[in-house]
Amino acid sequence: METSDAAGRFLEALREPAQPGEDGPEMVPSRLSRACAQAVQVDGAALSIHEGAGLRTPIGASDSTTAHAEQLQFTAGDGPCLRAHDTGSAIVFDLDDIARNWPSLHAALLGDTPYRAVFSVPLAPPLGPTVIVDLYARELETLTKVPRDDVESVVVTLTEELVRSAGAVAGDESSGRWWDSPAARRRSRVWQATGIATVALGMDVVDTLAVLRAHAFATGRVVDDVADDIVAGRLDPADLREDARGR
Asked: What is the pTM of this model?
């Protein structure tokens, strides 16, 4: 039976049959993201882990379009998600806000996604603000109409589910883990490519990652794609020297 309680709607959505390929523990973040989007009635949701120096690792998204929106934020090197992590506070940005703060991200979201507003929310302790959930909407009104109490109750329940999932697999090394999701494994190739390019360019890691981002923007791609090319040998990092000179 459908419930009007946001946390109840979240758990109800989470009980729906998993989509093909989403049975394992490593796919829990994607299922949680989809349930979150359904419960608060937004167009997409994505979860990511934040570390130092602006590094972020996606762990799950409600759909491929939302996963791509996360990649655009990462390629920009800044955005609502990082701001929520740095401040520890939930924050809403519409496209005008994003244009003022991050013009390149604004252009990418406008050109590559249908999303026009982002609501970035740190998870509850003990996972927040290290883990952030981004709520995406095609219209700002969608986010402004969402009761903040609903978002808070869903985020608390989502946090509890992630913590419970971590405990369930802690003693089973053969089982997948939600922090080792396919999205996280793909982002790990960025760190691998950054290491390769750091040696080739003679730069530190932070500057090298900035070069990869600059090349991604210059070629209309995301950093994850550039990293794949470097790791696979399709792109020689030495060819990025022109981007490095622009630093």
From this structure: 0.91
